[in-house]
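We give the entry.
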Amino acid sequence: MQRRSTLAVLPLAALVVALGGCGGRVIDTKKASKAVKQQLTSRGVKASQIKKVDCPSGVKPKKNKLYACVATATDNSKLKVTFKMTDDKGGVVLQAMTPTK
């Protein structure tokens, strides 16, 4: 079942780190993982139940683009957590949480 929420707006640039040179801005995977854990714990999941969170690296922020991470629980069940980028600076809103394999 897909779960949507527009209440979970993260601060502007919450998931972005600026890089030097021509690389531009990319999503900070550590901050993204932390945001996923915060979303889960705010919905009643105990932090001790979260085994790990995997987020893709090298993703550039772009308005309306989706960015998804996969959270793995201690029982090895997985949940895909998808954010929608609200701007080109890394602002995001929670789009969906869906069980995955």
The first strand starts at residue 16 and ends at 18. Residues 16-100 form one domain. The beta strands are 16-18, 25-27, 50-54, 66-73, 78-85, 92-100. The radius of gyration is 13 Å.
